[in-house]
Amino acid sequence: MKKQRHSIKDIASALNVSVTTVSFIINGKAKEKRISEKVTKKVLAYIDEINYKPNQLAQSLRTGQSKIIVFMVEDISNYFFARLARIIEDIAYEKGYKVLFCSNDNEDKKSEELIALFKDRQVDGYIIIPSSGIKGTIKNLLDENIPLILFDRYFEDLPTNYVVIDNEEATLNATNHLIENKFKNIAFVTTDVEQTQMLSRLSGYKKAVGQKQLHEIVLKIPYNAKPVNRKAIIKDFIINNPEVDAVFFATNYLTQDGISVIKEGFPSLLSKLGIITFDDNTLYEIFTPSISAVAQPLEEICGTLMSMMLKLLKKKEDQKVEKVVLNAKLLVRESSLPK
Amino acid sequence: MKKQRHSIKDIASALNVSVTTVSFIINGKAKEKRISEKVTKKVLAYIDEINYKPNQLAQSLRTGQSKIIVFMVEDISNYFFARLARIIEDIAYEKGYKVLFCSNDNEDKKSEELIALFKDRQVDGYIIIPSSGIKGTIKNLLDENIPLILFDRYFEDLPTNYVVIDNEEATLNATNHLIENKFKNIAFVTTDVEQTQMLSRLSGYKKAVGQKQLHEIVLKIPYNAKPVNRKAIIKDFIINNPEVDAVFFATNYLTQDGISVIKEGFPSLLSKLGIITFDDNTLYEIFTPSISAVAQPLEEICGTLMSMMLKLLKKKEDQKVEKVVLNAKLLVRESSLPK
DNA sequence: ATAATTTGCTAAAACGATTTATTAATTAGT
DNA sequence: ACTAATTAATAAATCGTTTTAGCAAATTAT
C-alpha cells in the first residue's frame, strides 16, 4: 500500500534519458547545459505528472546544504521568544528554510550540547541567544566560518554578527518617563547575570536617576533562584524600602513575581505604585491597572536577523561583521501614569 | 582555517582497516560481526581522539531515518502551544530526536503545504493539530504508514492515533462550578469552527445549564474575524444580554478580547462578572481579579504524545490505533467565585 | 573534403554512511 | 591429513542526488 517515492533514476529510465539530463533540467540548467527543448519539456511534463519531489536528504548530502537553520533561545515557552520564533518561522519557510528551535535555559552546558548536536547535522546557520559562558564554543563556530548571528546579547570582544536593541537607551527613556510622572523613588529589579543586555538595562536606569539626582534603588536577584525564593526576596525588598513609589522590572518573569507578591502581600500598592516592565505581553494591556512595558521591535529584529542570515548563507567568504542595534519602544499604560 | 570534518573513510585509512569494520564498530556490532577486541579498541580510541561524529545526513539517507519529528500547532507564539512545544522539545532531544516546529494557523492550505514540505525531507513522524479540512492529507499519511498522532482535536471517522482531553467533561465541570457559585445566566463565548474540541466544549456547557434548567446563552464568533471585529461582536453581545452574570470563554484569545472589551466599555463589570477561560496562562493568576481557568495537563499530554510517537517509530507495522483522552483541571481563582 | 566547433547528451565519481556477500586465515573435528 | 566450521576482516552495492569530464553526431569553417 505504501506509495512509491520516485527518484531521478526512475524518471530517467522511464523516459530513456540519463540521470544527468534529468538533474540538469530539474535544476534549471537545461539551457546552460544544452539540453534540447524537446527533451526538457518531456521531462518536465513527466515530473509534473508523477509529482516528483527531490529527496532533500540526498540533495543535502551532495551539496552540503541542509536548508535548516537553528534558532536557539532561552526558553521557547516564554512569550517573548515564542513570538520571535513565530516570526522567524514565517520568514524562513518562505525562503525555503526550515528552522530547528531549541531552548538553552541560558545554561552553558545545554547550549554546548545543542550546538554539538547540530554540527553533526550539517545545519546551515545559527541564530543564537548565547548563555554567558559559551564564548569558546561561539568562537569555534566563528573559526569554522559557519553562518552565525547572536542576538539579544553578545560578547564584547568577539567579532560576531549580532542584532540587539539599545537596552540602555530603552531603560533610560522609560525611567525618565517615570520621573516625568512624578515618581521619585524608583526601584530597579533585575538579575545578577552579567550579560550585556542586563548590564545595559541597569546602566540606563542608573543614568536616568543619576541625572535627576534621585536615589539608586537596585535589587539584584540571583538568576538561579527559584520562583518562591525570588518572591521572598522581592517581598523583603518591598518591606525594607517603604519609600519606593515605582518599580522597574528588568525582565518579564521578575514582573510576574513582583506583581504576584504585591497582589498577595500589599494589594493596595498595586494601583499606587508606578510599574514598568521590560518586554511586552498582550495580557499586560488588559491588566488592572494595565502595565506599561518596554517593547522590543519583534518584526524588525526578526527581519534583520533573517536578512542577515540569508546574506551569510549566500556567499560564505569574506563578509564583514555586522552589528545592528535597534530601538525599543515604551508602551505607556496605566501603571506608569500619575495616580 | 576551516576545521576538517572526519569521515569513516578517514578513520579507516588512518588505521589501515576497512570502512566496513569501522562502521560495524561504531554501531556496536563489533562482537556480532566478529571484529577482534584489539581492532575494536584501536578504532574506538581513535574515534575518541579525533572526536569523530557521524554525518547524520549520510546516515539518514542510507537508513531512511532522519531522527526528526514534526510538531505542528496552530501558532507557536500562542502560550498554550509554546508551553507544549517546550515540553516536547525536552523529551525529544533526550531521546535523540530533533523537532521541527511549525504553525498552520488552523488553515488547510498551510497545513498541506507544510506536510508536503516535510515529506521531501523524510521526516520520521508527525504530531499534528489538524486544521478542519485536511482529512484527505491526513488519510494519505495514514495510508503511507507514516507515524502520526493528532492531538487537541481529531477526525471522528479516521482511525488515527490521537491524544485529546475530555473537553465536554471539562466545560461541564467548570460550568457546574459557576452554577454552584450562584451564577444564573452563564454565557458561553466560542468560535464557529466545527472541530471536535470546540463542539465538545460547547456540548459540555449545554449539558450543565440544561441539567439545571438554566438558559443557554451562546455567542459564536466567526473564526476568521479580526480582533477588532471580534471585540465589536462581544461588545454588542454584552449590551444585548444585560442579564448575563457570568461568561465562559471557550478559548484563550476570546478571553483576551472579552476582558479587553469589559475593561474598556464596562469596567464595573470586571469584578462582578463570573469569568472562566479555557487554557491557563501564568498571568491569569496575577490578574485583578485573578482569572479561573480550565487547564490542560500539559506534561501529561506531551508525555503521552512522545511515548506514543517513540513506540510508533520503533516498529512501524501492525500497530493498533491508540486513542487517549486525558482530563483537564479547573483552576478556581477569584473570577469564578461569588461576588 | 577535412578540420574545428557546436550541440545534445551521458558515464561515472562523489557526498558519507550502512549492509550484504565474500574471502582468507585459523581452528576444530574425524 | 583432510574436511568442516569458525574467526576476522573487507569489497562493493546502496541510498538519491549533483557535477565533472567527455563522447558522438551535427554543423560550420577553411
Automatic annotation (TrEMBL), chains A, B:
InterPro entries linked to this entry: HTH_LacI (IPR000843), LacI/GalR-like_sensor (IPR046335), Lambda_DNA-bd_dom_sf (IPR010982), Peripla_BP_I (IPR028082)
One of the Pfam families matching this protein, by short name: LacI
Residues of the HTH lacI-type domain: 7-63
Gene3D superfamilies assigned: 3.40.50.2300, lambda repressor-like DNA-binding domains
SUPFAM superfamilies: lambda repressor-like DNA-binding domains, Periplasmic binding protein-like I
PROSITE patterns: HTH_LACI_2
Keyword Ribonucleoprotein: no
Protein keywords: DNA-binding, Transcription, Transcription regulation
PANTHER family linked: HTH-TYPE TRANSCRIPTIONAL REGULATOR GALS, LACI-RELATED TRANSCRIPTIONAL REPRESSOR
Protein name according to UniProt: LacI family transcriptional regulator
Record organism: Marivirga lumbricoides
